[in-house]
Structure of ATP-dependent 6-phosphofructokinase:
Amino acid sequence: MSKAPQPTMDPTKMGIGRSIAVLTSGGDAQGMNAAVRATVRVGLYTGAKVYFVHEGYQGLVDGGENIRLATWESVSMMLQLGGTVIGSARCKDFRTREGRMQAACNLVKRGITNLCVIGGDGSLTGANAFRTEWSGLLADLVRAGKITEDEAKKSSHLNIVGMVGSIDNDFCGTDMTIGTDSALHRIIEVVDAITTTAQSHQRTFILEVMGRHCGYLALVTALACGADWVFIPEMPPDEGWEDHLCRRLTDQRTRGSRLNVIIVAEGAMDREGKPISSDQIKKLVTDRLGFDTRTTILGHVQRGGTPSAFDRILGSRMGVEAVMALLEATPDTPACVVSLSGNQAVRLPLMECVQVTKDVTAAMSQGRFDEAIKLRGKSFENNWNTYKLLAHINPPDVKVFNINVAIMNIGAPCAGMNAAVRSAVRMGLIQGHNMLAVYDGFDGLAHGQIEPITWTSVSGWTGKGGSMLGTKRTLPAKLLEEISQNIAKFNIHALVIIGGFEAYVGGLELVQAREKYEEMCIPMVVIPATVSNNVPGSDFSIGADTALNTITSTCDRIKQSAAGTKRRVFIVETMGGYCGYLATMAGLAAGADAAYIFEDKFNIKDLEVNVEHLVEKMKTTVKRGLILRNENCNANYTTDFIFNLYSEEGKGVFDCRKNVLGHMQQGGTPTPFDRNFGTKMGAKSVLWLTEKLKECYRHGRIFANTPDSACVLGMKKRSLTFQPLVELKGDTDFEHRIPKTQWWLKIRPIMKILAKYDIKLDTSEHADMEHVIKKRTALAK
């Protein structure tokens, strides 16, 4: 995303004299409420009037009480609710010109010229058509005497901004649509439950998930649970798939697996375009193999429940961006969609995205399946390629080279580590390597706790929390002699180190030891895995998403308790070491009033402002408060100190409670994101090592001593990249164990604005409009 410095304007005055309406349309999706809340609060923050449009486009046509002024308090306690609080409806009236004329009349009468639409591609296409014929509708309304010339002049132009709310993730141009992550949470909860019963009875389970035209949910579920087969509309199975599927299931049973899992998207079809149903697959497996087979169709369960932390943050960030896009729009600006690409907010021309989405459907109907996968975007394509490699390629019977790759966990355990180990082991075996498990981190490497690890020994690891290999915080510096001896003894040619800041520092120490110990001259890769999300070289770490969801769901319960007792403030301490990622993101996801972190220095005056802010808040209808504090944010302003200060200053106005969340943040089963992220990272790391081993193979031995032979594999902005460990030293604060630059600090002001603090939002950098059509032209070449 190109970021262009703009002439700065006071954001609190941008919306004065303007009116914004927000509506949700089409199928509901978890996280829509977060987007509505952010749109309302940021709109009010800019000085604009904000209106709710209840019941989607139907409310826009019917007008009256359906279009109501929104207030700050009217969106309180919405963040954790699923569905859409302002309602959604399919609307036939809006498809007619008369209906759209009535909708235009309702907007003009209220002086609304900015419309924020949260929905799928149908809803957004409808909004664009409305905008395109706006001037014609106004002319007709003037002729009919329903509005005056003066009213038409004041509302001469309609700005449209869309946010995509769809659990299917079927809209091109955006990595994730609002609701997709939450739907995956629901699906994985069911898969985990089914897996236990299937193992007990040695059953085959066929699970049908939503996705009539898009296989994203099915594909990511298959990756996240290690399914044996997935059916998606973008890539129908080859002819003779029935034999291949039966062979695959039999192979898995022969290898000792007690269950088989098959994931089916509801829109699955064969190469001729004929539907493939769950019942058809069940009949095939039962008749051919005689396996005890059950089907489960998830249906609307996937749309329900509370939104995940990711969807709340996504909705909140998109709401902010949508308001800014509306207020910065000119009559020449095309209607846009705000979306996330990697961790970057982007604005995309609405109709370009709609066109590419239609192109995918056309490619599928014309049998151009490879193109359909590409048009879905890089994220979808990467998921498909990883799935294909891990599920459809069997390890070779004969080893081409006798290469030994060791894999280990370092530092504190976190959810998703095992998913990374599993995919690294299986990808290594597919590449023809021998895989070695190192137990208990660098201690195990020094003391020879090293054993071969096989395909079946990592079965079922994707969904397991903690670290199956065992992990310790010990660094290698004092064990170099023993480590080098064991690298030689076990003939280790490459090393995968999965862990947090200790893994990064440990990797650096091994690289520095190359001068003295030739055994260390082997390719190494560090995969960041820690709840703290503090590893240099990566915007995200495996495990952070699971911890974030744990904190968010706990805060939901705490807020519910506070809402019941009234006039109560909770102070919650989170983990993270010196890194404030968890406290900040949980603050945004749970709707906290403040989040104290080490990176954003604060003093007694700031604490005073926060207390006064809560005293004022207690005078409104929202009589509760939530304060998050990162464990190491300040040596003197401890959790007890802040609790005592708030208790004293709030006497007679509110009372306080405190919670230290502790190690529950490291536990639990991994979220779909951490399973998928760990799986992709593990697979990519081994593919990279395989290439490095070829580069470093000299005269019958491996010798790697260049900086780029020891890297961190990290997510940077929009892609997975390998960065040499030594090059990251300059961006590392070793004393506080954090990177010197952290992307998420830029979104801290959003949390403060949504909590009604009078601060300035930096509008000098904004997301420029990007184009998605170029992807199609590149494909056509």
Notes: Residues 672-695 form the longest helix (24 residues).
